[in-house]
Amino acid sequence: MSSDSDYDKLTKEEREARDKVDREREVAEQAVLPYTWKQELGEVDITVPVPKGTRARDLVVVIQKKKLSVGLKGKDKIMEGELCKEIKLEDSTWTLEDQQSLLIHLEKLNKQQWWDNVLTHHPKIDTRKIQPENSKLSDLDGETRGMVEKMMFDNQQKQMGKPTSDELKKMEALKKFQAAHPELDFSNAKIS
Fold it and tell me: What DSSP element (H or E) covers 175?
């Protein structure tokens, strides 16, 4: 991969051609790894094919904060090395599926960073080209979710020409004040 400044000088067609070549190279490099992997911002999932009929007791899987080792007892390691970034050990697990696939789930310590690779000595991917899945409101913490829902409501209200949540609060406060002070005349008042 060449520098970003060189890339920025390319025409749209040249960028698309370079991206296509880079994608093909990346796919070829990833295809030769003894595993496949995918990631979201908070986690990495690795699938390691193992011989059909493999049992959990036949596997030697070591997951550490910054290292990963996978192998079959009495055989060479399938994969071993330093992880690209640190993980939350207590939330990382592995399972054997259908006696032919080892599934490893790694919970990222830094949930705001894409990984370039799983093991540091393996080929890197271009994390700038990752298209993250849309997150769901239910994935957000309570405060953030409330803020997003308020923004969505306000936007919908504006599109319909109706008052936003803040404007509704002001109107409600004014009604309460008027009810508490019927002696005051608000007919010529301009409220902003």
Answer: helix 165-180
C-alpha distances (whole Å) from 91 to each of 26, 101, 118, 144, 152 are: 29, 20, 17, 24, 33
Is 80 a residue whose pLDDT tops 80? yes
Confidence of residue 133 (pLDDT cuts 50, 70, 90): low
Report the distance separating Cα 5 and Cα 8, nearest Å. 5
Tokens at 16, concatenated: 């698309």
Model confidence pTM above 0.85: no
Confidence of residue 108 (pLDDT cuts 50, 70, 90): very high
The DSSP secondary-structure symbol of 58 reads G
Residue 104's CB is within 10 A of a number of other CB atoms, namely: 21
Joined tokens for residue 177: 């004040």
Determine contact, residues 156/62, Cβ cutoff 8 Å.
no
Q: Convert 117-155 to b/e letters by CB count within 10 Å (16 or more is b).
A: bbbeebeebeeeeeeeeeeeeeeeeeeeeeeeeeeeebe
- Nearest CA-CA partner of 171 in 159, 157, 183: 157
pLDDT band at 142 (very low <50, low <70, confident <90, very high): confident
